[in-house]
Specification:
2 domains, two-stranded antiparallel ribbon, 19 helices, about 0% strand
Length: about 450
């Protein structure tokens, strides 16, 4: 697999590893405090924390007999969030997020956390407040983990820059930290999986295949599109780490069987309705969706995260110096497959959201590519092979970073950017997605 090379300053890390955890803690605190202000986005995740509270307090996964929640089948179906099966009211969206949040909620209960008022009635404003505490906590943890992953390859100062760029220049800020989207827990779990995989390859230690597979399994339970990295990592291990592949696969099958049993018990089907991608996929608008997910003025990844241009340049320019090329191929494969998969959705813009929400799942993989690209650039500079392209990178990268931060600050800080979806409703008027006269990232300034 990957040849082990010593990253910048690694020897000092190995003698005093506690220092790196100290810096990671500083990163966590800075990002958490910065993520606390701003708007909220809990459209699809409304009632998630009500489910969590029900799990903690009663062990029930359904929402029966909760004052403040409509139990009328017709009204519930109109919201698109709730549906009734076997006489019980369930959330339509994946179950992973409310389950994973249960331990945090249990701790919060000691400090009075509740989505119910004193009369036991559900209150949306209470749920919003809790979303705005938990989501920043999870995303600050992801950013700290990005710093530690980066330190396996590059120096401390550059690792700090990578972590903060990922925090404030991507959908981590403008989407995943604004509420408990199904992406929020998912990208954190993918970040953990990447760290396990990279650290094992980099330092010649175990990748912990059972933990790795379990982490990606739970990402899948949060959102079905996370099946892409779950399967891709299986192929990666089958090619280069066959001894780990069997443990990884057995673990994956065990989790999948458990998930199927859970779904059969609650919903009467082997997978929840949201996982029936066949009902939500089709060739309609496929080419438009492919382009839209990249360059739409209101949904394009390359528009809302200009830092991706820097990452792609680093990989292309310093390809022959890449340290860990199998990891690069893995990342690029996952990115490509995910892009194609979400482009098969006729509803490819992801409804009411800010920017390129449906590519939020790819941010940890782009970060890994950026880390590997920076490592390759360091090697090229040491061998005097960076050339004029290095000057071009130094000139363009700060401008693209600034653009990324400003665009994602718009979505992270101002609720008005999210309200762009309403006037008129983007789901009824998807032609707005191509209107350069009123792109979403400029909405507060129109």
């Amino acid at each position: 697999m990957t040849e082990r090379r010593e990253p910048t300053d690694l020897g000092r890390n190995e003698r005093r590893p506690h220092r790196e955890y100290g810096y990671a803690l500083v990163v966590f605190l800075l990002v958490f405090l910065a993520f606390r202000p701003g708007g909220s986005q809990i459209g699809d995740s409304r009632y998630y924390l009500l489910i969590t509270q029900r799990l903690v307090e009663t062990g029930h996964f359904h929402l029966d007999s909760v004052p403040g929640v409509s139990l009328n089948a017709h009204q519930a179906s109109e919201t698109g969030l709730l549906h009734q099966i076997g006489g019980h009211t369930y959330h339509f969206f994946p179950p992973g997020t409310p389950i994973l949040t249960a331990p945090l909620f249990a701790v919060g209960k000691w400090f009075g956390a509740s989505v119910l008022d004193e009369q036991g009635v559900y209150r949306l404003e209470r749920e919003i407040r809790l979303h705005r505490r938990i989501a920043p906590l999870l995303m600050a943890t992801l950013v700290a983990l990005i710093f530690l992953t980066s330190r396996l390859f590059i120096g401390r100062a550059m690792s700090m820059l990578v972590a903060l760029s990922a925090a404030f220049g991507t959908q981590i800020w403008s989407t995943a930290s604004r509420g408990l989207w199904s992406h929020t827990w998912g990208v954190l779990l993918v970040g953990i999986a990447i760290h396990l995989l990279v650290r094992g390859e980099r330092e010649g230690r175990s990748i912990h295949p059972v933990l790795l597979s379990s982490t990606l399994a739970w990402a899948f339970f949060c959102r079905p599109t996370f099946a892409v990295p779950w399967l891709a990592v299986a192929v990666y291990l089958a090619i280069g780490r066959r001894s780990d592949f069997l443990k990884y696969t057995v673990t994956a099958c065990s989790w999948l069987a458990g998930f199927a049993a859970f779904s059969q018990f609650h919903f009467g089907t082997w997978l929840p309705a949201y996982y029936d991608l066949g009902q939500r996929m089709g060739p309609t608008h496929f080419v438009e969706a492919l382009m839209g997910n990249l360059i739409s003025p209101s949904r394009g990844l390359l528009i809302y995260t200009p830092l991706v241009w820097v990452v792609l340049f680093l990989i292309a320019r310093f390809w022959k110096h890449l340290d860990g090329r199998p990891l690069v191929v893995l990342s690029l494969s996952i990115i490509s497959c995910h892009w194609v998969l979400i482009s098969t959705f006729p509803h490819w813009w992801g409804g009411w959201s800010y920017g390129s929400r449906l590519t939020t799942d790819l941010i940890p993989w782009f970060v890994l590519l950026g880390i590997l690209g920076l490592r390759a650039r360091d090697i090229a500079i040491k061998t005097s092979e960076a050339g004029a392209h290095s000057l071009l990178l130094r000139a363009a990268a700060p401008l693209l970073l600034l653009a990324s931060v400003l665009i994602n600050a718009n979505g992270g800080l101002w609720s008005g950017a999210y309200q762009w979806n309403a006037n008129p409703d983007v789901d009824s008027h998807p032609e707005r997605l191509w209107d350069w006269s009123q792109p979403q990232f400029l909405h507060p300034f129109h």
